[in-house]
Write a structure and sequence with these properties.
The protein is an alpha/beta fold. Helix content is about 45%, strand content about 15%. The strands form two sheets. It has an eight-stranded parallel beta barrel with strand order 1-2-3-4-6-8-9-10, surrounded by four helices. It has a two-stranded antiparallel ribbon with strand order 5-7.
Length: about 375
């Protein structure tokens, strides 16, 4: 059976979000007692055995809150023992830099943020023993600190700073070996009201400008598409996928959801980042078909959060359900009769296409149920 590559995020396994909801509803995952090594063991023992044998599991980390110089050796050791691979590493710059990070107009912050990114590259290459051959990990740049809350002409200067800093990072990574795929993860807001690189189209244009202005090779550069980030502002993540494929820039996926488009889970445009797991719906089945036609076979990440009322057991179940939901979307997408759909579309019989998609979604839920009951 064809291999399917899914990755699980360290940050999903937290004791609670705090703020308006409990901060310690999952006490076993309190940061004082639940380490990154514990996380890898949990994935290997509680999640991996319950998935179909064709699924290969990777993990995703922030430097330096989740993977760092102190725990690096232990984490690599347990990953090798458990056959768990590095799928993604990202600099957790948003935890340290609140005034723009590498785009900052304050020289000292910008310099420190640049150094932080280069150190993340170093840590990533120290993990080469847990790279999966031909499925090398993605180095993701999330725009969480590249933001602003006041309108000035110097937003353009921030953008120029960003280009220059990421060009330096790309050159550094290339000298280290050029094994990583580099991806920008767009987001419209959080943790600032306005962000540089808010959309998929912005990220694609950014890479092309980096090639044009700095000569950066972009063959292994692209987008970490996160469904929920597009949904937050009412954009069409199907069309995002078309743009990514057309520009050969789909290098990683976060297949979570705001949840608003399945008629069951609430969320959607204008809401905060809810981070539900993958959903079975018509849009996701279409995206699954698009990436199948394109030949995408890299990591599909589950950047999601447990619900504020979940205990540890229920939180684990949500991760398993997310993985199996996406597998159901992919299985049903392979059964899609494109010729039949095109015939109806060419005759303006979109009602018939609705019927086809409704049946596919219904069948997808049956496939999920069968997969889940066999775990």
């Amino acid at each position: 059976m064809e291999k399917s590559y899914h990755s699980i995020c360290r940050w999903t396994f937290n004791s609670g979000k705090g703020g308006f909801v409990p901060a310690n509803i999952r006490p076993l995952w309190n940061s004082d007692r639940f380490s990154t090594v514990d996380f890898v063991n949990l994935v290997a023992e509680k999640i991996k055995p319950r998935l179909p044998e064709n699924i290969v599991i990777g993990v995703e980390f922030h430097y330096d809150s989740e993977i760092n110089e102190k725990n690096l050796g232990q984490v690599i050791k347990v990953m090798k023992e458990k056959n768990i691979y590095l799928a993604l590493i990202t600099p957790g710059a948003h935890s340290h830099f609140a005034y723009g990070g590498i785009s900052s107009l304050e020289p000292d912050e910008r310099k420190k943020a640049e150094e932080f990114g280069l150190r993340t590259i170093d840590i990533g290459y120290e993990m080469k023993d847990v790279f999966l051959k031909e499925k090398e990990p993605t180095f993701v740049l999330w725009n969480g600190s590249w933001g602003y809350d006041i309108a000035t002409p110097f937003i353009k200067k921030m953008y120029e700073n960003l280009k220059e800093s990421i060009a330096k990072l790309c050159e550094y990574e290339e000298k280290k070996g050029g094994e990583f795929y580099l991806a920008i993860e767009p987001k419209p807001n959080e943790g600032h009201p306005c962000m540089l690189i808010p959309t998929v189209a912005s990220a694609i244009l950014f890479w092309k400008k980096l090639n044009e202005d700095y000569g950066i090779k972009i063959e292994k550069k692209g987008v970490n598409k996160e469904f929920g980030h597009s949904e937050m502002i009412g954009l069409d993540h199907i069309y995002d996928t078309v743009e990514e494929i057309d520009n050969k820039m789909l290098v990683h996926m976060h297949i979570n959801s705001q949840g608003y488009n399945d008629g069951i889970i609430l969320g959607g445009p204008g809401k905060f980042d809810i981070d539900h797991g993958a959903r079975i719906n018509g849009m996701n089945i279409i995206i699954a078909k698009l990436i199948q036609e394109y030949g995408f076979s890299r990591w599909k990440g589950h950047d999601m959060q447990a619900r504020p009322y979940d205990n540890e057991i229920k939180a684990i179940e949500r991760v398993i359900r997310s993985i199996l939901s996406w597998e159901a979307c992919e299985i049903i997408a392979k059964r899609m009769n494109l010729e039949e759909i095109l015939q109806y579309l060419s005759k303006r019989e979109t009602d018939k296409v609705e019927d086809i998609m409704r049946d596919l979604v219904s069948e997808g839920f049956k496939i999920f149920k069968s997969l889940y009951e066999s775990t």
